[in-house]
Specification:
241 residues, elongated, six-stranded antiparallel β-sheet, mainly beta, single chain
Length: 241
C-alpha cells in the first residue's frame, strides 16, 4: 500500500499507510486520521479517497488551501513522489518498491483544478512558465467574464446559471430557484450580482439559507465551491466562462 510521510521542515514525523477502499481525513481536530496541530491548518483541511486503483486528494474548503508540488489545488490525482503542503507541514505520497501503480489510462482521470488567489500568488507563481509570451500583431482579446453557477448536490439536477442581477430562491413558483420545505419563505433568499462578485442574502421565512453549514444573517460574498443549503436543496457555487 502507498505511504504518506508527514514531515515538518526536514524532520520526519510519521508514516501513514493508505489502504485501498478507505478514505482518510487530514486536519487540526483530533477526530482526523492524520492530525496536524498547527493554527495554519483547518479543523478538517483535506481528505484522500481511493478511486479505482488510485488515490485522490480533495481540499475541504480549507482557509489556507492545499498545495501539491507548489500548485494550489482543489482536487488532485496523486502520483508517486507528489509533495503535499498543508500549513507548514508536508506530506510526501509514494508507492512502495515493487507495488502496483495505476495504469496510464487511470492517470487520465487527473482533473486537477488550480486557483490563483492574491493570498497565494507567490507560491502559485513558482509553477508559472517563465518564458515570455510570443509577440503578436493582433491586439489582445478582452478577458472573458466569469459567470456564477449553482450546481445541485441534492434536491434537484443540473446547474443554474446566475444570469440575472438578482436571483430569487423560495417557494414562490415565480422564483428563479423554487425550493420546498418547512419554513421556507415565498422569497427566502436572494443572490445579487455586484461588480466584485455574487452576494447571497436571507430575505424571509423561518428557514434561513445556510452557507457552508452556517445560517446567513447579512449579505455574504460567495466564494468558489461554497455550499448553499435551503429547505430541500443543496447546491455548490462556482464560476466558469
Amino acid at each position: 500500500m502507498p505511504i504518506l510521510t508527514l514531515k515538518f521542515k526536514q524532520n520526519k514525523i510519521a508514516d501513514h499507510p493508505l489502504e485501498k477502499g478507505k478514505s482518510i481525513t487530514i486536519g487540526r481536530r483530533k477526530n482526523n486520521d492524520i492530525v496536524i496541530e498547527n493554527l495554519a491548518v483547518s479543523g478538517h483541511h483535506a481528505k484522500i479517497d481511493t478511486v479505482g486503483d488510485g488515490f485522490v486528494l480533495t481540499d475541504l474548503q480549507s482557509k489556507n488551501g492545499c498545495f501539491v508540488n507548489e500548485q494550489l489545488v482543489t482536487s488532485h490525482w496523486l502520483k508517486h513522489g507528489d509533495v503535499i503542503n498543508i500549513g507548514k507541514h508536508t506530506l510526501v505520497f509514494g508507492y512502495q518498491e515493487g507495488e502496483e501503480r495505476p495504469s496510464d489510462e487511470d492517470a487520465k482521470m487527473d482533473q486537477t483544478m488550480v486557483m490563483d488567489t492574491p493570498k497565494h500568488h507567490d507560491m502559485v507563481a513558482k509553477s508559472a512558465p517563465a518564458a515570455p509570451a510570443p509577440e503578436s500583431k493582433q491586439p489582445p482579446k478582452p478577458a472573458t467574464p466569469l459567470s456564477g453557477v449553482l450546481a445541485y448536490l441534492s434536491g434537484g439536477e443540473g446547474e443554474v446559471v446566475l444570469s440575472k442581477k438578482l436571483m430569487k430562491l423560495g417557494k414562490d413558483s415565480a422564483s428563479d430557484i423554487v425550493v420546498s420545505g418547512f419554513g421556507v419563505g415565498q422569497t427566502a433568499a436572494s443572490i445579487s450580482m455586484r461588480p466584485n462578485g455574487y452576494y447571497i442574502s436571507h430575505v424571509g421565512g423561518l428557514s434561513k439559507v445556510k452557507l457552508n453549514g452556517e445560517a446567513v444573517k447579512d449579505s455574504v460574498l460567495l466564494k468558489e465551491f461554497d455550499v448553499v443549503e435551503l429547505g430541500s436543496i443543496k447546491m455548490q457555487f462556482f464560476t466558469k466562462e
